[in-house]
Fold these 2 entries.
Entry 1:
Amino acid sequence: MTETSSPFAARTSRDAVEKGTTFAPKFDADGLIPCIAVDADSGAVLMFAHMSVETLAETVRLGEAVYWSRSRAERWHKGATSGSVQKVVEMRTDCDQDVILIRVRVEGSGASCHLGYRSCFFRAVPLGATPTPATELTVVEDGPLFDPDVVYGTKDKS
Amino acid sequence: MTETSSPFAARTSRDAVEKGTTFAPKFDADGLIPCIAVDADSGAVLMFAHMSVETLAETVRLGEAVYWSRSRAERWHKGATSGSVQKVVEMRTDCDQDVILIRVRVEGSGASCHLGYRSCFFRAVPLGATPTPATELTVVEDGPLFDPDVVYGTKDKS
């Protein structure tokens, strides 16, 4: 294979990264950058995943969320199996450019969680007391919107 | 020092973690869990940081965001210097319980970014073309709400 140059700018000074307008995302030791996906209309946080250099570039170009699955160690075009493609309405990065935020509209069932919920964050943690191993979560989302066994069958979830 | 037991439940089966109601957060190899903070009212994503076992437990108990600063390698009670304390209205976790989401109301200036912006995600990435090192970000937030040099002076930012 031919070595390809990065589609992203090099990171120079801290000031340039934090206050400038050059897009110079930081990838971690595994070559990944975390990505938060939120619903473009409601603002609800839907999921959290990672992108590689290649899949971040592909997401920018395509306007659909393409992640890197750490568990499967492969490119993960969200919705390829489930139909829950995430159309990217807006992409942002944070002050030190080591996190990506995407505002998306989800196609198909509208569920982004592999369990069929609209959001992966469907359970709340009780506050106000020191947590213990007996601390119980509360389900705070309606759903699921689909049956994962029907949608994925024996396939990996995407 | 006395060894203290974890305030969180052990992670047993994948089904228990994903579908159950036992709070069993996963900490990475560095003992940290990522945390997304959003504005409790507008839903806007404000910042992304990490918590340790101790600071997650403290956040739950106190109802104020306490992070672990990776750059300073120390406990980080958000707002201790700047006054931008994040009061936690709700905490959630995701399907595999390896991410924390907090809905917060920010005291003081209302800014969560150390540069004085309400959100760290104040710049947008242009979509629809393959990114290049010349790709320019666009500032999409008003601000900053405070002057970092005045608020922090020579102190570390918190």
Entry 2:
Amino acid sequence: MQNKRKIPAPFFEIGPKAIMYGDELLALAKAADAASKKYDVRIIFTPQPADIYPIAKATKELLVFAQHIDPLPPGRGLGSVLAESVRAAGAVGAMLNHAEKPLTLNSLKKCIDRAKSADLMTIVCADSIAEARAVAMLGPDIIVAEPTELIGTGKTSDMSYVLESIRAVKEIDPEIQVLQGAGISTGQDVYDVIYAGADATGCTSGILLAKDPFAMLEEMISAVRRAFDDRNGRPD
Amino acid sequence: MQNKRKIPAPFFEIGPKAIMYGDELLALAKAADAASKKYDVRIIFTPQPADIYPIAKATKELLVFAQHIDPLPPGRGLGSVLAESVRAAGAVGAMLNHAEKPLTLNSLKKCIDRAKSADLMTIVCADSIAEARAVAMLGPDIIVAEPTELIGTGKTSDMSYVLESIRAVKEIDPEIQVLQGAGISTGQDVYDVIYAGADATGCTSGILLAKDPFAMLEEMISAVRRAFDDRNGRPD
Amino acid sequence: MQNKRKIPAPFFEIGPKAIMYGDELLALAKAADAASKKYDVRIIFTPQPADIYPIAKATKELLVFAQHIDPLPPGRGLGSVLAESVRAAGAVGAMLNHAEKPLTLNSLKKCIDRAKSADLMTIVCADSIAEARAVAMLGPDIIVAEPTELIGTGKTSDMSYVLESIRAVKEIDPEIQVLQGAGISTGQDVYDVIYAGADATGCTSGILLAKDPFAMLEEMISAVRRAFDDRNGRPD
Amino acid sequence: MQNKRKIPAPFFEIGPKAIMYGDELLALAKAADAASKKYDVRIIFTPQPADIYPIAKATKELLVFAQHIDPLPPGRGLGSVLAESVRAAGAVGAMLNHAEKPLTLNSLKKCIDRAKSADLMTIVCADSIAEARAVAMLGPDIIVAEPTELIGTGKTSDMSYVLESIRAVKEIDPEIQVLQGAGISTGQDVYDVIYAGADATGCTSGILLAKDPFAMLEEMISAVRRAFDDRNGRPD
């Protein structure tokens, strides 16, 4: 586990959602941990809350993030996901405002503040360039620029969207990192997005629903490294 | 861990909400585990989702319940709490519809069905006699009859409410167990409710915010046993 | 406008949802008003909240219902729909808990109580037999037994569902009226449901999205009358 | 009724929430209409949705705004408040994202877009400077800079907050108007905020719960005019 507020590029997010859990997910997490080391690519891994503890204990390189935290401080709040609790279980960050768990503007602000006070990084989803700009005003560490209509489709954002969203966020705050999500389904998709200039991308169904999730994981993480090196003129 | 659909009376629920988590909660869970054995009182323990795994691993007698599950099946649903995931982490049940995490009638029905298919018991909260009757129609294992206006006040339901809510639920389905919650703050409160005829009661702030939570836990669990035996004419 | 707590059978609900509004809806409301008188069939008409006033002013027979009210009493609650406000505008009832506006069990209870105190009838939707039983415990005037998966499909509930849902509700409280919704798209569908024993049915897209909504309205309301008379052996 | 996308300063918002409705509110609306003309101060009036029609019909100067609209387009959406429906009833704008009706970031974006396509102005609430900046990215017409913790307290924002929030919004888009809300309870409060540089302010409980709402309305609207003229050096 690491916990730096700025993750060195390139990095990649694997989002198991509610697709995989328990021992099966633990095995995938261990494979991701090995791939992270092998290819020197940081991997954000976002399991179900009940899977945070065993995965954090069993891995060294993975950046385990909660899928969500609630805006409330320690105290009442039965049924919530408390920032401090996921931190204590081994998470180093939290995803917020995914299209499947949208937050009110006010809760989003509070969640980002709560994450900071619990020493958690934040990766916040935005559905459009305008929303990415709005989110940038709230001080997250990473923004996922992911048009909702592409989620789970296997259709990627086009490169103009990729570049425009990076530019829009960096204009407001150059310290915020931008992850290009939505529709990544092959190693080639990963290569294209990173080579075009993104510092990070990620995948859910492309890996989790692949015939062989382990092979696809390897294919994608190696593609991150290759694209990033090619883009920056890797020394032979 | 046990998983019987009907918990033998008397039993008790400890609900840490978002008050306690991590190592501190683990220590309390171990003390509850010991008290459960010592007094032969079943204890439902409902930690934050990220605390389910370590607590389930470290205890033998506790019935670890999730504070909440979402109605969705395995698949999409980023930010959710999946029934199968908490089951895999060691939970044997889930609480549903607490006043701090209310569910739509339709989601409540789905959650109860989802819990069954993931082999989780359900303990469902109801805010009034009418709501307890409505919940009884949906087939939960246990109903918490807890008038919201008393939660956290240290003021208990009066005995007529206790008896009427038990009767209302049992009339519809005698297999459903009834837990009398709300406002329990001393061992005497516990004694009174169990002695009056309840098979179960529970506590959050009375234990969690006590000067010495461990001592209060012991006081309450021993009171459960004493009241139950006194009520049933304990053989010396 | 009428306001009797029990609407004499047969009756019919027309639900414009957010499909039609303003002058166009007002014209349809007037046609429904005329059909109600012509066929001696009570019609519940549920416009958008901003359309309640003009429709209630322009009609005599229609039972104008709000599509929803919120559980709050007069006071704070910006952005809410207040029971007393829709009552003052001319509504005589409110629909609650439709699949497109689901309520928590606790809010549903409060909304039914609030409606009573504002002298509004309630028509509450239930998605399954179990939910219809649960709703019946909360004291509504009318229950809509409408399996969500059929809404807007043009596929009607089968007759065993119709009869079982009526029986389930009447067993709990024979005073509650049952409206069979979901999937009514022709006058024949209306005839079949009423003839089978329902006292009421209703329609949204079948009328609102018909090529000629006025003609379809006439076809359906006349079918209600015909089926009801045939069922009861109309004197020639 | 007017509908200009930019309301000439100074202006004032009266928010009846769910406090007043029906004939009583209609009388207050008429008084506001007269005060608007008398003092040449534009007044945004935000009634319950069922009160929009009669108030819009009975007034000439008032800018009637809905308290809320939903993000959905015409079609399904039972229980919603449709932009086109409130527009047809006479509203010229909609309030969005009040602390009592918070919107997800994504819905807020959609509601602003929907309002535009239905020819409604938008007045969007923000709870902090950071949130005001975020909202400014979404293209509303007016932003209410209102720290939630002051709502209904009779304690006003201090002047540094007033000026900083105006500056923060104007930096992003000088066309967006800023209304300083929260805690206005006397004519003097109104005078102070406008004199300090705000173009607009507003009030709910200060007027609605006043011993004499009509007198307080007059006091506040006249204070708007006086402060604005004093600030700009009224020619005698």
